[in-house]
Recover the amino acids of this structure.
């Protein structure tokens, strides 16, 4: 796989391995553009993310790796930022970097992708939860604060699936993403979860391709052995719906390259 823009570091407190180990794993799987996008700091749920004070250290690590491996791979600097109304900080949003991935991990105060809180799915109207989730994704696109949509249909992580057609549930969010000229990542982490398929699902990717929304790729690695895992599968899936180019970003500017 050629481009991989979604990878974490130990600073988020739920990943292991050094930045050098990640970059060396990326070089071994022939990745040409490798981006770190660790969980940005936030005054909410601080134990699963770096602190504001650690942003300098994070950026230093990434820039050191960029220089050290410059003749083997291009290392990019990003952040994965939570779309959580009331908790998005200009310190993060205005930080100079290559790109920001916007991710919805919370519906109100519920971290729905955290197995600790899986009990909260019980007794809920699942279609209503999907509607609320995609309303947040739509608002995230309309906010204009981010470059890339992280794991578009993350809510399926534990295999609680809607009874309504996912394409209808996601329709307004996809329109907003298209209008905002954002990129959607194909994220491999879903293969490692109960749902056992990428985000977004093949059926949603068909709609995304019809809308001609640019795509990129992400391992969402929290360990170096997750880098590039299922890379062939997601590139093949993208090709099967007509893509032959993917996006990368430098200094918040998008470039499209063949993959
Ligand atoms: Zn994480
Ligand atoms: Fe995420
Ligand atoms: Fe992530
Ligand atoms: Zn993620």
């Amino acid at each position: 796989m050629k481009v991989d823009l979604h990878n974490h570091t130990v600073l988020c407190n739920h990943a292991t391995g050094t930045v050098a180990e990640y970059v060396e794993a990326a070089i071994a799987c022939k990745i040409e553009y490798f981006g770190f996008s660790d969980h940005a700091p936030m005054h909410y749920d601080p134990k699963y993310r770096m602190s504001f004070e650690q942003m300098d250290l994070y950026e230093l690590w990434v820039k050191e790796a960029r220089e050290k491996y410059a003749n083997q791979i291009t290392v990019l600097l990003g952040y994965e930022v939570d779309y959580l109304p009331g908790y998005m900080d200009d310190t993060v949003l205005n930080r100079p970097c290559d790109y920001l991935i916007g991710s919805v991990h919370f519906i109100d105060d519920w971290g729905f992708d955290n197995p600790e809180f899986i009990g909260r799915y019980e007794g809920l109207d699942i279609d209503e939860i999907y509607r609320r989730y995609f309303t947040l994704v739509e608002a995230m696109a309309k906010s204009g604060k981010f470059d890339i949509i992280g794991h578009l249909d993350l809510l399926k992580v534990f295999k609680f699936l809607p009874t309504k057609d996912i394409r209808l549930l996601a329709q307004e969010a996809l329109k907003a993403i298209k209008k905002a000229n954002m990129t959607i990542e194909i994220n491999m982490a879903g293969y490692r979860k109960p749902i056992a398929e990428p985000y977004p699902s093949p059926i949603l990717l068909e709609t995304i391709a019809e809308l001609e929304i640019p795509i990129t790729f992400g391992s969402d690695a929290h360990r170096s052995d997750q880098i590039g895992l299922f890379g062939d599968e997601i590139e093949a899936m993208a090709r099967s719906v007509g893509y032959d180019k993917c996006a990368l970003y430098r200094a918040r500017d998008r470039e499209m390259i063949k993959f």
In short: The domain at 3-258 is CATH 3.20.20.140 (TIM Barrel).
